[in-house]
## 1
Amino acid sequence: MDHSYEEIRKATLDILSGRERSSFTPNQFVHLRIGVAEVLHKRDGTTTHPGQREPQLTQNDQDLFQEVFWDLFRQNIITLGTSGDPNAAYPWFRVSSFGKKALANDDVYFFHDLTSYEKIIRENIPDIDEITLFYLKEAMQAFIVGCRLSSAVMLGVALEYSLDILYEVINQNGAYSAHFQSVSKEPTLFRKFNKFKQKLNEKKSELPKELREDLDINLDMIVSLIRNYRNESGHPTGAVISREQCYVNLQLFIPCCKKIYELMAYYR
């Protein structure tokens, strides 16, 4: 039976991460393909046809597996060659150092392309506005093609826009606008958020328990994301962060933005 790209990709990542075992060491293209067939057959509850030495992918699945393999290469999850042998090339491959870190992360925020990133965002923040989502997708697209500075800038724009919406929501709430009015008087993104954080902490005891949960952690993460985008004077930092840090920032944005939208819902 045929499988989707996502099913094949998940089986591939489960093998590369060690969450699934296969008959062959997954360091050659064909061996990995056989392993994926074994995992999918096991998950489908199907058996190997008589006369076959090992499970086989359908022609459609083989084509999709080839796409998955080269997508993982392009995304720097795998690299060609073998460890310690600079002369080895395709069909030999190994998991890259970045790939090892990414594969070790098996939580809800593991994404691999624009579609999966948008899907996770929409699942966690159903009410996210389209402008913020647009900048997030630009940040992810820049990350995919290796433009880390562009990714950091787009992520910063998305964060700044989300915070501006939150401030405006509070400003329109007559019960709280006076308490937070000093926030809008601050000249820079960083100082504005620090003032907001201070004023929010003064009202923290009034917040519902579920909103207080992980609030400080997410506020601190927002500060960290802002520092990657602008310095305390409000100017772009221009700092080019590592690929790993860029990936982490794309992850961190999701719970941070989710908390921002939870605050919006509370103050509406």
Note: The CA atoms of residues 118 and 137 lie 7 Å apart.
## 2
Amino acid sequence: MESQLGYRLNRVAIPDHSLFGFADASALITNKLLQISLAACNHCICVSHTGKENTVLRGKVESDRVSVIPNAVDTYAFTPNPSQRAQCQITIVVVSRLVYRKGVDLTAQLIADICHKFKQIHFLIAGDGPKRWLLEEVRERKGLQDRVVLLGALEHSQVRNVLVKGDIFLNTSLTEAYCMAIVEAVSCGLKVVSTKVGGIPEVLPEDLIILTEPTVPALMEGLEQAIEELNRDKFVCPYECNKRVEHCYNWFNIASRTEIVYQSVTKEESKTLSYILQRHLSSGVWPYLLVVSLVFLMLKFYEFWIPSHNIDVAINYNSKNRDNKNRERNKE
């Protein structure tokens, strides 16, 4: 039995899907919490290279302890259906939480400008949030009740039914580590116009997305380019879009890459309590050492109260054995 300071703790891998700044007080507090969390972490998984860089800087973690694995999309759940599109109009779809970070202020101004310039433009907006009133105000002030539809919050299973009704997908986010919404939109065959922020430029190839600066004039220009391409029938075939997304972001590929990371973590040596305390000490939050020590003492108490050797250990799952048993049962 090792001494208390030599007691070895389990290995940990943490996924990180967010981008945070470094200037305001909330970001400083969040970054310090991240640094504490990653101090004893074996590995971290980010969804984009931009996210990785942000995590390395915020968490003060070695770059070789951070991997980049994007999110996956079920392309069978997000299939195109061009027959659902209106023939005499161009529908721009927005699926987003209606908050400042998602650029709702930009969306509101764009609605007013683009609807004034193009009479065939209609908006289909799914999502809810504290900024919804801004879109409602623009719709009422400009008299666009018949051209701007606010659907409110939707279940994820309902999103595809909205996307297939659109021609163009608009994303006005001010910060984004990856943006699943644009991948789901392309999987349904829409052309994407998006702000060029965070990890978004890494997600889709140039022929499937139009990237712009997060300003109203730039987004307006991007939408005009998309409308022109649509009128000239230069959009990529919706079903081809779906196949390309399936090739890049299928669950089998993403799960396999994640499994490689987990396997590498399991091969690393377990960290001792003394090592964990030293790592947390380097984060500069000394009181947190008391928390770690308290948790350790609680674990020791539970080990004494309910010894681990009395707890059933989960057996290793072997899919081949189960498949063989199923075949034998089917033969019987």
Note: The chain has twelve helices and eleven strands.
## 3
Amino acid sequence: MGPDVPLLNEYKQEFFWKRFPQTVLGGARFKLGYCAPPYVYVNQAVLFLTPWLFGGIGTLLCQLQLLQELHAAVLSGMLMFTAAAGVQALAFYAARKSGTVERLGAPNILVDEEEVEFTNCVSPETLRFIAPGKRFGLNVVLHTIISGLLCGFGTWYVFLGRLTSLYGSIGVSLVVFVLSWVTLCIAEYSLIVNTATETATFQAQDTYEITPLTRPLYIFIFIAVDLADRFSNPVPELQLACQTLHVLFLFLPLLWALGALPPLDALLFWGMEQVLVFGMGGSPMSSNVRLLLMFAVSTGITVCNYFIPSALGVVLFSVTTGFLLSLDLSQVGSLSKSPREAFR
């Protein structure tokens, strides 16, 4: 390739500048390849800023000392839970109203979006374009509950009083507060309204809708560290970690967009394999099914060892199960067949 050859041709550049902002913003489609009415963008903007509105209500009531921090966070979470349930109800209504039959499976993320004919701001076509909805009823309930928890804990995570106690400056606290809510809005939008096309992908098709849980998972990890600092004895290292993570929290959208953080399914399988190998002395597995099976069996054996009262019993049980797990049990079937074939 010569120096004058572009990395992306005109078509790919257009596709990139349509798709990349969607990934950054958690699935909000503010740049389309065709003309759309203004209410399409307004509706998406309102849904995008809804968590910030509810979190702002809780923060304001807390700052005015009308509610305690915990009660304000619970209020914000309940409001977000109600809004998420409303969005899912509208998506279900639009799916029933349109009466279209879709093939089960993830859509092709490498093709352009089909042009949609919008009639009004609450038409089934508009609702399905903005909030496609979930494929499974269990995910509707689960994602709605998680959205409420995320908004509640997120409001608690970025309270101005908490940020001021960490950094000792009102100006820095306000900057962190505003940018943190941008991160929370991105995660909420991807969870409830429309899932973003992630740069980091572990499986070709998201059959069980695991991708929407990826961004909230990382936010809950940040919140867990903050809660540990709140409810434990003062530890300078933990407080320093909270200060650092609050700043890193602002760059989560960039890390998600660049694919620097692994998706949820890959992270869980990797974590289970690390625990199995380094924590329980097992071996790496060749497939996800074997990994899940071996991790479950090893965890069960570890729990059983904890409840055995006799030290001798623990030793005998560990030796026996360790020997059985060290065998390649997949070869038992072939070994049992070979003697029969020898007598034929």
Note: Residues 69-98 form the longest helix (30 residues).
